[in-house]
Amino acid sequence: MSELETAMVMIMDVFDRYACTEGNKTTLTKGEMKTLVEKELPGIFSKVAAKEKDASDKLLKDLDENGDCEVDFQEFAIFVVALCTIGHARFANVPPKK
C-alpha cells in the first residue's frame, strides 16, 4: 500500500479499536472519545484539557453533528481532517529537518 493508503487504514483502525469498547460498535461514546484523544493525541489534548476543565465534553458536543451524543466515523474523519489542516497551516513555514 502507498503511504496515504496506509495512513487511511490506520485512521480507520484507530476509530474501530476505540468504538468497539462500549455500546454501539460503529460510534464513539463520550468515554471512548475521551480515551481516544488522551491516548492517540496526548500532545494536543493535554494542552486543551489544561485550559478547559470539561474539554472532552465540549469536544464531543462540537463533533456531534447529528445530535445523537456519539461520534460516528464521518464526524471523526472531519475532526482528523481539521487537525491536519491546522497542523499543515502551522508548520507550512517551518524549514524541513536535515
- Mean pLDDT over the residues: 85
Query: How would you spell out the order of helices and strands?
Result: HEHHHEH
Structural domains: how many:
1
What gap, in angstroms, lies between the N and C termini? 27 Å
Can you identify the CATH class? Answer: Mainly Alpha
- Could you name the CATH homologous superfamily? EF-hand
CATH architecture descriptor name = Orthogonal Bundle
Radius of gyration: 15 Å
- What's the count of strands? 2
Number of H- or I-type helical stretches: 5
The helicity comes to: 55-70%
Beta-strand proportion: under 5%
Alpha-beta classification: mainly alpha
Enter the CATH topology name. Recoverin, domain 1
Q: Mind summarizing the main beta sheet?
A: 2 strands, antiparallel
Task: Please specify the SSE layout and strand pairing.
Layout: H1 3-19, E1 27-28, H2 30-40, H3 42-51, H4 55-63, E2 71-72, H5 73-91
Antiparallel strand pairs: 1-2
Describe what you observe in this structure:
The two termini are 27 Å apart. The protein has a two-stranded antiparallel sheet. 67% of the residues lie in helices and 4% in strands. The mean pLDDT is 85. The chain has 98 residues and is mainly alpha-helical.
Summed up:
With 98 residues, this protein is mainly alpha-helical. The chain has five helices and two strands; from the N terminus they run H-E-H-H-H-E-H.
Summary keywords:
98 residues, mainly alpha, Recoverin, domain 1, two-stranded antiparallel sheet, 67% helix, 4% strand, S100_Ca-bd_sub
